[in-house]
Amino acid sequence: MRFVRVYHADPRTAAETVYPLAWLSGLSFGHPDELRALLDNPVHRVYLISQPRLSRRPVGYLLAQIIPPEAEILDLAVLPCLKRQGFGTLLLEACFREMTAQGVLRCYLEVRESNVEAIAFYLRHGFKTCGFRSDYYAQPSENALCLSRSFEKTDTPYF
Ligand SMILES: CC(C)(COP(=O)(O)OP(=O)(O)OC[C@H]1O[C@@H](n2cnc3c(N)ncnc32)[C@H](O)[C@@H]1OP(=O)(O)O)[C@@H](O)C(=O)NCCC(=O)NCCS
Q1: Distance, CA 25 to ligand 1 centroid (Å)?
Q2: Running along the chain, 159 residues long, what does each successive block of 10 average in pLDDT?
Q3: Which of 107, 115, 105 is nearest to 137 (CA)?
Q4: H or E element: which one contains 15?
């Protein structure tokens, strides 16, 4: 894990970087313009992670919406061949640091109920089930599990 870099994506080019990563990871934004429109709003942040020894391109990303005291993780993915090597954790920790520094007290997310690996990952990072949305996802249609985790005021900053 030496030399790993987690950084904010440049909003002007983030869509071009994130779109292929999302596609490779089985996630979908529809058209890249949808992602561009989302990133035009400054409440949305994209974190990228790179490991120059492995690839010149980022190997994972996290997309979050931060509106203190609440935040939402909109998307998170690591290249399939590099899963379970701690990259997802580094992205989430970087995001938690910024959230707590900005005064976020609760973070939410939705995940497909069949996505056992992501659910295990989020439970490992302090999220708990807080709800359920019927037929929330399309292609294929599927229910969403809603997860949330809180931060104490004294958690600021996260680390
Ligand atoms: C979810 C995801 C981002 C996790 O990233 P990652 O880099 O593989 O995760 P990490 O290596 O940091 O894993 C940290 C911990 O999460 C848990 N975890 C991660 N993957 C898991 C799996 N397949 N099964 C069980 N637990 C898992 C483990 O506790 C793991 O710690 P350990 O390896 O010491 O046991 C990755 O699996 C992914 O890109 N999935 C596809 C995209 C996706 O579904 N995103 C979620 C959309 S909401």
Answers
A1: 12
A2: 76 82 76 82 91 86 95 94 95 96 96 97 98 93 97 66
A3: 115
A4: helix 14-24
Q: Is any atom of ligand 1 closer than 6 Å to the C-beta of 117?
A: yes
Any atom of ligand 1 within 6 Å of the Cβ of 27:
yes
Ligand 1: residue of 84, 95, 125 to mutate (most ligand atoms within 8 A of CB) is: 84
Q: 13: domain range?
A: 5-155
Residues sharing a CB contact under 8 Å with residue 35, sequence separation 6 or more, in sequence order: 14, 15, 18, 19, 29
Q: Is the pTM of this model over 0.90?
A: yes
Q: Are strands 106-112 and 70-78 parallel, antiparallel or unpaired?
A: parallel
If one counts the domains in the chain, the total is 1
